[in-house]
Design a protein that fits this description.
The protein is mainly beta. The protein contains one helix and 15 strands. Strand 7 and strand 8 form a beta hairpin.
């Protein structure tokens, strides 16, 4: 045997044998496959609410809502939309909600002459009646950044201004996680919100500092599930196609 072949043979003899897998199941892809429980089937019709959603406004029926002070909804309903009547106060859902996925479409008035800043197309969507996602005509309409459309009012400015021109329909898609409180009333975890405005991410799992305040810092007080509330702010803002999914 030549010297190179002899050396190679010696090296092979000295190398440890490759160990066979101790557990063949570890090589089986089925060990990481979960088949149960199966996710619920949710139908998603084109342009419609998911099959497991609670439809709050379909363009005609306002029975899911009541006036701020109770009683019949004081806003007008026409052409598939529900429109604020200035001076009539806001409206709220009859049902109470905690964690939800929310879809809502809104439109600010076409007429803008003489209006600017917070006076132009102002309304708001209050989660649990306390925490405001701002609705505003923010198309070429400067105002404080944590008060424009897509903001958590006076708390969190949006990541982008995705506003369409006045008179055009716009959408909010919201994931809301309600705050948690201890039996003694202490805050266990604050509310969190994710918002897509016209398909653009404007709030990314944002921590909400407390209930919305016009003056002063936000704070928390213990509460339970509560209605959604749409604000009347002296502007003829319209809403349509509102639905929620409880999470």
């Amino acid at each position: 045997m030549t010297r190179p072949l002899l050396m190679a043979a010696c090296l092979l003899a000295a190398a440890p044998a490759l160990a066979a897998p101790k557990d063949d199941a570890a090589r089986d892809p089925a060990t990481t496959e979960a088949w149960t429980p199966e996710p619920a089937v949710v139908a998603t019709p084109q342009g419609g609410a998911p099959s497991d959603a609670i439809v709050l406004f379909d363009g005609k029926d306002t029975s899911a809502w009541e006036a701020e002070q109770g009683g019949r909804v004081p806003w007008t309903v026409a052409d598939g939309a529900m429109t604020v009547v200035p001076g009539s106060k806001g409206i709220r859902t009859r049902e109470k909600f905690c964690d939800i996925q929310l879809h809502v479409e809104w439109r600010t008035p076409t007429e803008t002459a003489g209006f600017k800043g917070q006076d132009r197309g102002n309304s708001g969507i209050f989660l649990q009646e306390l925490y405001e996602l701002q609705v505003l005509d923010s198309y070429n309409n400067p105002t404080y950044a944590n008060g424009q459309a897509g903001s958590i009012y006076k708390q969190a400015m949006p990541l982008a201004n995705a506003s369409r021109a006045p008179g055009e329909w716009q959408t909010y898609d919201v994931i809301w996680k309600a705050p948690r409180f201890s039996p003694g009333g202490g805050l266990i975890s604050p509310a969190r919100i994710t918002v897509l405005h016209n398909g653009v991410l404007v709030q990314n799992d944002t921590v909400v500092s407390g209930k919305t305040e016009y003056i002063g810092a936000p704070s928390y007080a213990p509460h339970e599930c509560a209605p959604l509330y749409l604000q009347e702010h002296a502007s003829k803002v319209s809403y349509r196609n509102i639905w929620v999914r409880k999470l």
